[in-house]
Amino acid sequence: MRKIIAAIIICCATMGLAVADELTINKNVPDRYVVVKGDTLWDIAEMFLNDPWKWQEIWYNNPQVENPHLIYPGDIIALIMVDGQQRLTVLDRGENANTLKITPDQVDENGVVKLRPAARVTPIFGAIPAIPREYVEGFLTGNRILATEELKSAPYIVSGSEGRLLLGAGDKVYARGEFISESPVYQIYRIGKKYHDPFTKERLGYEAIELGTSRIEELQGDIATFMIERSTQQIAVEDRILPSDETLLSAIFYPSEPPAGVDGVIIDVARGVQFIGQFDVVLLNVGDREGVEAGNIFRVDRAGDKVRDPVTNQRLQLPSEEGGLVIVFRTFEKMSYALVLTAKLPMKVGDSVVNPGF
Question: Is 326 helix (H, G, I), strand (E, B) or coil?
């Protein structure tokens, strides 16, 4: 084990890698941690780091380990010293993280394939995600934000079979529009809220609410016949049909700081509640245009209350307070979806999101 650590240190020193200043390791953290099923990258980052959004600055890709940027249940995460700085890395793949695979070795003159055991290469469990997937599932494979141009050009349902107006799984529908996708699978959407920037009043987009999936069966001119394969709500005439846009939550999804100088506000919350808490999904008024990426962490500053001065009778705005942290998990041109990771105080629509380091 010491030889592995020494090799890591020598390799890193040769490459001239450096660690950003002011990275603080939490007190009483273990020298080694065995990843278990159900862990997330955020859990581990929060365990080791005082500022978990600086994960990429402390993570080291161990060249001795296959796919070191992926972390699997059973892996051993360890603190090591590199150029006098503490770094985190996958020190060893655990026995539960991999399984044996049999691969063809050669074919003899009779056409018989001889097999031999190969190294452990196939993960039993998938790499751990950055955040709990169950809270964002519907926003990775379902809802999305559409720009005005996308909405206007989106194909729409004109009729159901036998003139039916309310439709569901197993029904045939007819849609009109331009169908250029090579994929036979389409998602069905209903147009939801229209969003504007609360300060500039710029139109940011429309939220498209996923109703189900369908498969194209026939196309004649601009009329396509679809079979609805899955539905979560009743589907109706004028609902939109768009090529499948399933976005997977990759394990290579590191917590990170947002671009310098980028801040915004919470403009909506998915559940429509008044107060926002842990694991709620919120919509932000910043996106690809501002350089925001999946993994960016923002601090939520809860707006202070407005009170009346008991002496002067003036209306006063109390200072803002830190409400919690959110992580962006899906971006669009002018907006993004984010998950509330921590909640110190109840938050609400209109609260600011800023760089967590400031």
Answer: strand
